[in-house]
Design a protein that fits this description.
8-stranded mixed sheet, 5-stranded antiparallel sheet, WH_DNA-bd_sf, transcription, transcription regulation, Bifunctional ligase/repressor BirA
Length: 337
């Protein structure tokens, strides 16, 4: 168990959250602890402990058993993120590149890392959070998961090539996730442009935010959310590793993902997405299947998915011929009978 992490992007009055995290760590062993014992170990009142348990249940969405004469017990203990444990799992080259930072609570790791990047944060900074209050995905969609149920982290990578040389980056990041999960025995598929699927449901998402010049250099913040266990209520069909029969430790998984990301991003900086096109296609969902490509404006396009080009653009065979798409939302279309 790691010690208390910092809180980033929180309002000044965040002490209730800090108390809640402290009490939650006291309950992490899955045993009953009396309110008096917890208060004594934390140097606070039993009332503060009771308030913290209320926050754990109503804000964090975790169930806590309360039994007279025994105290409090966390219904489903989870593995806390521990940057020392993650670092032990890194390969030498990755360990030399990544600087690991952990916060208990933040609004969005992408938002906070973008702020740090503009203030001169070093290449290779990784910011992970136990909980995000305003996590977001592609197209501004909300990405929020129950505390302890997944990985939510962002990383800062400074490319020598400019923004114009970064098409297909989100697809390359997807390849890195596939490599890490496949090595751990998890079969996954890639959905263009930035999702990972397991059994047809979304397991992970990628958010890329760019800044810099067209010709270089470029600063990129890469955000990743991955469901390890049940993430709680989310406004889209999702999967998680535990329910799919692949229970993995979060620290082991984060180390594996960071190792793969280091290798992929290093190669991408030299060669671009073309180096990963075949590998992406080999793991792609919907290739050769009838699909519908939808847009925020305009009519959807239907056709047969034919993979991607060297820039990561989606190729769709339509009655008018092969078309290329750089933006859009892809869904599997039922075959007409």
């Amino acid at each position: 168990m790691t010690g208390p992490a910092a809180h980033a992007g929180l309002p000044p009055d965040s002490r209730p959250l800090a108390h809640a995290f402290a009490v939650l760590r006291a309950l992490s062993d899955g045993r009953f602890h009396s309110g008096e014992a917890i208060a004594g170990s934390l140097g606070c009142s039993r009332t503060l402990v009771w308030q913290a348990v209320h926050t754990i249940e109503n804000v964090f969405g975790l169930q806590v058993y309360s039994v007279r004469g025994q105290g409090y017990k966390l219904a489903q203990p989870f593995e806390w993120l521990d940057m020392a444990a993650v670092r032990q799992g890194l390969a030498e080259a990755a360990a030399d590149t990544w600087t690991l930072a952990l916060v208990d609570e933040t609004d969005s790791t992408n938002t906070q890392l973008t702020i740090r990047a503009s203030a001169g944060a070093p290449h290779g900074l990784v910011l992970a959070a136990e909980r995000q209050s305003a996590g977001r995905g592609r197209l501004g969609r909300r990405w929020q998961a129950r505390l302890g149920s997944g990985l939510t982290f962002s990383l800062l990578w400074r490319f020598e090539r400019g923004i114009a040389g970064l098409p297909g980056l989100s697809l390359a990041v997807g390849v890195a996730l596939v490599r890490a999960l496949t090595a751990l025995g998890v079969p996954v598929a890639l959905k263009w442009p930035n999702d990972l699927l397991i059994d047809g449901a979304k397991l992970a998402g990628i958010l890329i935010e760019l800044s810099g010049d067209a010709l270089g250099p470029a600063t990129v913040v890469i955000g990743i959310g991955l469901n390890v266990a049940d993430p709680g209520p989310i406004d889209q069909p999702v999967a998680n590793l535990a329910a799919a029969g692949h229970p993995l430790g979060r620290n082991q998984l984060l180390a594996a993902v960071l190792n793969a990301l280091h290798d992929v991003l290093t190669t991408f900086n030299r060669e671009g997405f073309a180096a990963f096109r075949e590998e992406w296609t080999a793991h792609a969902a919907f290739v050769g299947e009838p699909v519908r490509v939808s847009f925020s404006h305009g009519q959807p396009v239907e056709g047969i998915a034919r993979g991607v080009d060297d820039n990561g653009a989606l190729l769709v065979e339509t009655p008018e011929g092969l078309r290329t798409f750089h933006v859009g939302e892809v869904s599997l279309r039922r075959r007409r009978t």
